[in-house]
Design a protein that fits this description.
Layout lengths: L9 E2 L2 H9 L3 E3 L14 E4 L3 E5 L10 H8 E6 L4 E3 L5 E10 L4 E7 L1 H5 L2 E7 L7 E2 L4 E10 L4 E3 L4 E9 L6 H10 L3 E3 L2 E2 L11 E4 L8 E6 L6 E2 L12 E5 L5 E4 L4 E10 L5 E5 L9 E2 L5 E2 L14 E9 L4 E4 L3 E9 L42
Parallel strand pairs: 12-18
Antiparallel strand pairs: 1-13, 2-7, 3-13, 4-5, 4-7, 6-12, 7-11, 8-10, 8-13, 9-11, 14-15, 14-21, 16-27, 17-19, 17-21, 20-26, 21-25, 22-24, 22-27, 23-25
């Protein structure tokens, strides 16, 4: 029987996730979960064998997901050998992993970084749930992933991972006083010219991040092109980014107007350090900052921007930005989002970084792993005012 000592609370690290799988808390009829799917503070979940094209998104409420599907499915698609998901259409895909949660463990899901950077909207539902991506204590049953490609049509296949799961015991979120104390010992955020003082931090149920529209390079962001070609999510370093993205060049006024329902990749001004005893989560939408979404993929694993022994001086966060309703102007160093910190049950045996093949451990303004690395033209564009 899977048990966590009563005195411990927080997000389960990789060594506890492996115990949870061994004890059947997370299990799969499709065979052993690959070692590469275990991350320092989360588990990558795999797509199952079929996808349902839906009339509309839904929450099951008091019902089983399968019962609700009977009236919402337009088409059932076999994805074992690969299948195309069209942009701006909702799909529901049963995941290969199922849960058998103890009464004191709950779970939370979030898109993987590569999923968010491709503007693929994903969220998990379970039987009789009332909220997306949140799985109640004691849940026994299947998980289903809603997938809505926004900017690009994509090809998926059974076994691919688009999202990840955290297992949590008790209350994990850090209070503001805890963050200030931690930052005074080892910095959690740094500016380009060094550590931010306690008075420079904006602390309110997390740490605020701002946008960089100057950049150390000429390009300060990317904007997704409309009507691009298909992206096969199983291919890495395959696609020419010029076919899918427009570069945004920094200009004298250091501001950018976000166009409604366009998708942008931008970079935080601050560098983030996630210490081994913490995990991070970016809030997706804060209406007080403006009518735009700033992040799809919210999980930051222990070790992000930290390194193996604290040798890194932070890594900047790539922000996945989509404006809504009206054009919205961003200016350099304008606050755009909030990074919440959560406690780990205990530090993980391995940290985020090159040693475990992490894709974005030392990133700048980096596209998803599906694109080739190229040298962009330096010719200024008129993307900024």
């Amino acid at each position: 029987m899977f048990e966590v000592p009563s005195e411990l609370n927080g997000i389960l690290p990789i060594q506890w996730l492996k115990k949870a799988v061994e004890e059947g808390v997370v299990h799969s009829d499709a065979g052993e979960i690959p070692e590469s799917n275990f991350q320092p503070a989360s588990l990558d979940l795999r797509l199952g064998e079929k996808a349902y094209r839906l009339r509309c998104s839904f929450l099951p409420g008091a019902h089983r997901v399968q019962d609700k599907l009977n009236g919402q499915t337009l088409e059932e698609i076999d994805i074992r050998e690969g299948a195309i998901l069209e942009s701006n259409r909702p799909y529901l895909i049963p995941l290969l992993e199922e849960l058998n949660l103890p009464d004191n463990i709950h779970a939370k899901a979030n898109p993987k970084s590569s999923t968010g950077r491709l503007d693929i909207f994903t969220r998990v539902i379970t039987d009789k749930c009332h909220r997306f991506d949140e799985i109640r204590t004691g849940y026994h049953g299947q998980m289903y992933l809603e997938v809505v490609p926004r900017s690009f049509t994509v090809k998926v296949k059974t076994g691919l991972s688009l999202n990840q799961l955290r297992l949590i015991k008790g209350v994990s979120q850090c209070g503001d006083a805890d963050l200030l104390q931690a930052h005074s010992v080892e910095p959690l955020l740094l500016a380009p010219d060094g550590q931010l003082s306690l008075t420079q931090l904006d602390v309110n149920e997390g740490l605020s991040l701002s946008i960089d529209l100057i950049g150390g390079e000429s390009i300060v962001g990317y904007k997704a092109k409309k009507n691009s070609n298909l992206i096969d999510l199983s291919l890495k370093k395959h696609y020419d980014p010029m076919e899918f993205w427009e570069p945004i060049y920094g200009e004298r006024m250091r501001r950018l107007v976000l166009e409604p329902e366009e998708f942008y990749l931008l970079l935080s001004y601050e560098s983030v350090r996630i210490l081994p005893q913490f995990a991070g989560e970016m809030t997706a939408l804060d209406p007080s900052n403006g009518e735009f979404r700033t992040h799809y993929a919210g999980f930051f694993d222990p070790g992000f921007g930290y390194g193996l022994e604290g040798e890194l001086s932070g890594t900047r966060a790539v922000l996945e930005v989509r404006a809504h309703d009206v054009p919205f102007m961003l200016e350099n160093q304008q606050q755009v989002c909030k990074l919440r910190f959560e406690r780990m049950l205990e530090p993980p045996d391995i940290l985020y970084g090159a040693e475990i093949g992490s894709s974005y451990y030392d990133q700048g303004l980096q596209l998803s792993k599906h694109f080739q690395s190229i040298t962009w033209p330096t010719r200024p564009q008129l993307s900024l005012l």
